[in-house]
Each structure stands twice: as C-alpha cells, then as structure tokens.
Amino acid sequence: MSPSKLDSTDSFGHEEASVSCSKPENGCVDSLSIFHSEKAVEELLQQTPVAGMDEHLIEFSEALRTVAKALRRAAEGKASAQAEAAEWKRRYELERTRNIQMEQKVSGNNNCEMLRHWWIRSSLDNAMDMLRIMLPCLFFWEVGKEQNKRIAEARMAEQFSAEKNGDLDCERVKNSDNQSMLQNESNEHSETGCMKHGIWSHEVLRDRESDSNSNADRNKIMRKASFKLSWWCNGENGDQHKHDIVSFERGNITTAERSSKQISLKWESDPQTVLILTKPNSVSVRILCVQMVRWLRERKKLNVYVEPRVKVELLAESSNFSYVQTWKDDSEISHLHMKVDLVITLGGDGTVLWAASMFKGPVPPIVPFSLDSEHFKDCLDSVLRGPISITLRHRLLCRVVRDAAKNEYETEEPFLVLNEVTIDRGISSYLTNLECYCDNSFVTCVQGDGLILSTTSGSTAYSLAAGGSMVHPQVPGILFTPICPHSLSFRPLILPEHVTVRIMVPFNSRSPAWASFDGKDRKLLAAGDALLCSMAPWPVPTACQVDSTNDFLRSIHDGLHWNLRKTQSFDGPRDRDL
User: Fold this and answer.
1) Catalytic residues
2) Domain co-membership, 389 together with 406
3) What mean pLDDT is predicted for residues 546-559?
C-alpha cells in the first residue's frame, strides 16, 4: 500500500527480527547474556554491605547501577529496531511481489509482440491472397453505397417537395417520432450500466453528451431543461480580472487575462421539474413546503418531486396534493438527475448536505432556503427566469482500500464528500498513527487525535474548529488539517486539487482508526488499510443570493461573527504629532 520509494528500502528478514539474537556478529550482543549480566549486577547490589565499606565501594556500586540501566536501554532499543526491521521486511516483500507481477505482464506483452511480428513476416503470402478476395468485395460495396446515396437524395427531394406543398405524410412523422423515442429509451437503459459502486462514470456520461449533440431529434422529447454556464463581471471595464492561462512570447512568461469574477447560469429552455427536500420534524418547514408546492404547481405549472415522507405529510394535509411525485426505492434515486431540473432545500446546511449525498453523479442546481424564508416567491421567480449566480462547490471522492486487496482498484463502495472526511482514533485511548502520502510522495506521519481532509466549502466547519483556514468555496483545493497533533509545529496545509491523498494505518499502530464521511457512514481502518481521497468530477452548484464572494463574506460575518469586536473608544490619548 505504501509508495515504491519507501517499499524498496533494504530491510531485514523476519527471522532476524525476533527479540533475541543468537550470533554476536556486527556488534550484536546476545540478549540472554545481557539479561544474566544485569541479573548479576542486581544480586551484587542487593548483598549486605561490609561494615568497613569505604567510598570506593560506594562509587563502584553506583557505576554498576549505571551499567545496568545502560544494558536495559540497549535491550529495549534493540527490540524496537528489530520490530521496525520486520516492518520494512514486510514492505519489501510486498513491493517485490508487485514488481514480479508487473514484470510478468511486461514479459507477456513482449511475447505477444514477438508473435505478432513473426505472424506478419510469415503470412505475407496469405495477406496478398486475402487482398485479392477483398478488393472485389470493396468495389461492390462502394457501388452499393453510391446507389443508396442516390436513393436517399431522391427521397429527400420528394419529402422537401411534399413539405413545400403542405402534403407531408403524417404517418412518416409518427414513425420517426416512435423511432426517436425508442432510441431515447435505449439510451436510458444504457445509462443504467454506467454506474460503478453507485457512482456515475464521468467518461461515459461525457461521451453521451457528445452523442446527444449530434442527435437533433432528441431535443424534441428531452424532459430536462438545458442551461449554460459562463464567466461574467461587472462590465468590460471592471477591475475583477484573474490570470490563469500561461503563454510564452519572445522568451517571456505571461498570462492571458480573462474575467472570472463569478459563474453565471442561464437557462436555454424552461425548467419543468423541481425536487423539494425538507428538514424533518419542523413545523415551520412543513408550512413553508405546503405553500411552495402549491405555488409551483398552480402558478408555474411545474412537476414537483418530494421525498416519500413529505408526500405522506402533504396527503394528510389535503388530498389535492395527489399530483406530487416521489420515488419507491433507492434505484430510482440514482436516476433523479435525469428528471430533475432544479433542487430546492428547506432547512439549514444539513439539508444541503443531504441533497448533495443523494446525487452520485451530476447534481442539478440547488437553491437553499432558510427556515424564515418569507419572500420565496420573488426569489424563485428570479431563479426560474435566470440568469443567476452560482457557486460550484467541489466534492471529494473517497475510497477505502483494504490490506488484502491486490491493487488500489479493488476498493469498497466509494463516498462523495461535500464537507470533509475525518480519520480519528474512535474510542481508543491511544494516539492515532497515520502515514500520509500525496501522489506517492511522503507527507508526514500524523500522531494525535486524528486528521481532517476537507473541501474549501467545508473549511468553515470541522476543519475551522481544528485550526484550519477559512477558504473561499470557489478556490479548488484540499485542506489537510490535523486534530490535536502531538507536535506544536504541525500546522495545516492546503493541497492543490489535482493530487490524490493517501492515508494509511501502519502495522506498528497500537490501535485501528475510524473514518467518517460528512459526519456519517463510519468505516474501520485496520492496520494495512488505506483511504484514498481525490477531487470528484461532479461539483455541487448552489444558487447565490448576490454573488459567490458576497455570500461567503456575509456568511462568515453573520454566521461565525468573524473579527467581531468592540470598537476602540476615541476618548483616550492621541498622538500629538498628527
């Protein structure tokens, strides 16, 4: 599990790592002889002193005590060194096995390459015969292709003339619509197999987007609203400019300017479906939910999805809420992003965390409302009309790799984290011992109560309480914050977004560790287990009241009372020189 640079270090065997050492080679003293020498010194010291003992015997006894202490320390240091040597031996064997497997794969590939070259050299005559057979087939295939092209052009000309005269065949349109609907259903079924461990595959969905752009008929029956994200600032002459594109001109390094003050979301088609998630066991939230559902349906004509629990509460309130939709099992939740255009949360930060955890892939824009949102109609009117400012909140993709796994790809079900992942000592009274790596580079060994790996959105949560920095949520990065470290020089770090952080429990750890993801789903990390954390490809877009920076500063002022202090009195002494 450890990087190869550390695993390849020379080590000693398990047989040599025992507490005793049978051969006194290379300065290694037999521990049994040390034990007998120490025992003899103790017996000599415990003997009854002679009546006429002088000062020389007293000094000699003190020297014997010093020798006994030195022998004891040497034995303890030897046992510790042998235990560490056994650990390096195990790592060496693991790395050696891994290298042997890779060499076997490489040798297998080389054998296949040699066989392929031999087949090319020995089968030249067979290839010429195949070409003689295939050339006529290719000729007739080209002829047929040309004929099909002419037939298609003729049909298009007939269809164009029929549309011009207003005599379009309705049956043909119906058949084409049926074909496009069948194609859409097949695409949905193909998306069902694009999930692994409940997380949507980024590459597969990206390929589907390119395919959907080439299919013009699908836009006619698409259920989700489309939108576009763009950078914007306050006017062309605004002073909000950032530099992120590096260019080289005449040997000088410069950066190209682009406006990147905020991210703006603009709807390209009207939203049709809204998902409302509420805080449970709250009377004020229940009243607000009833008003919002009725307003969205009657005034905006939108389809409304709620949780099964909320639908039961709405039907108990009135039978007129039968139009509200919900899901039956967890398998339908994994496909909500294909139906929902907008997510509305009624509650606090915990409700937003719950909304983000429901989507294992793309997340629709989230509009959070607090418990005292009285003017929700004006806000939703602005959101549905667009454009709106949003904040892309990055998430961490966390995977647990057990010690018995053959490679890092044999992991358990991954977790998507919006705030932080915490590795702590649990109920154990011992300090947590964790080895930390960043892209196979050793970072440090954590000894303390634990470690926090946080996103920038979670920088004002647990990480802040542990001494971490407050970071703007649109700054991409991973916060590395220790919890009550055993060293005063252990300060928090902020790592770039592209790295992969590996947290491993070493074999010499006194106790296992526990990992929790956004405060839930605790996992036991035994000796040899590792936790891999990297930036997830699916951020969480949240709507802003004003803009991202204004909302962030207002939240730390109002919510955290940042730098709130009593103003200094002006009645005191003043500088006479001013």
Assistant:
1) 349
2) no
3) 91
Contact between residue 1 and residue 403 where contact means Cβ atoms under 8 Å apart? yes
Tally of structural domains, the chain: 2
Same domain, 366 and 465: no
How far are the Cα atoms of 182, 240, 383, 391 from residue 231, in angstroms, in the given order?
A: 37, 11, 18, 12
**Nearest Cα residue to 365 out of 349, 335, 397, 387:** 387
Residues paired with residue 277 on neighbouring β-strands, in sequence order: 345
Tell me the three state secondary structure of residue 73: helix
- Which residues in 527-569 belong to E strands, given as ranges? 530-535, 540-543
pLDDT digits (tens, 9 = 90+) for 102-134: 777 666 666 666 666 655 555 555 656 666 666
Residue 113 domain-assigned (yes or no): no
Please name the residues in contact with 205: beta carbons below 8 A apart, sequence gap of 6 or more: 191, 194, 361, 362
* Contact present, 4 and 440 (Cβ < 8 Å): yes
Q: Which stretch of 22-26, 275-279, 547-551 has the lowest confidence by average pLDDT?
A: 22-26
Q: Residue 309 sits in which domain range? A: 227-233+241-393+538-561
Of 419-423, 490-494, 571-575, the range with the lowest mean pLDDT is: 571-575
Question: 430 and 363, same structural domain?
Answer: no
Per the confidence metrics, is the pTM higher than 0.70? no
Q: What's the residue count for the chain?
A: 578
- 255's CB contacts (< 8 A; 6+ apart) are 243, 244, 245, 246, 247
Indicate if 411 and 280 belong to the same structural domain: no
My answer on whether 277 and 303 are in the same domain is: yes
Residues 442 and 365 in one domain: no
Count of other CB atoms within 10 angstroms of residue 313: 17
Q: How far is CA 476 from the centre of its chain?
A: 12
